[in-house]
Specification:
The protein is an all-alpha fold. It is built from 3 helices and no strands. This is Flp family type IVb pilin. InterPro entries: Flp_Fap. It holds the Pfam family Flp_Fap. Keywords: Membrane, Transmembrane, Transmembrane helix.
Amino acid sequence: MTSRIRQFLRDESGVTAIEYGILAAAMAAAIGVIFGSDGAFITALREKFSSIASDITASGTDIKDSAN
């Protein structure tokens, strides 16, 4: 009986499965925060595209005004 208890205490295979589960949950939470609708990445990307679009619009307006 004591040999089985010792063998159980030495067995670390279950620990790695738990660690992988915790790691997967942490990565899923991080991906949700980063790529969520109000996440930092999406907000920065949206602001950058808005800036580029306004620069393109402004440069097109300047060309039209100077052509007349």
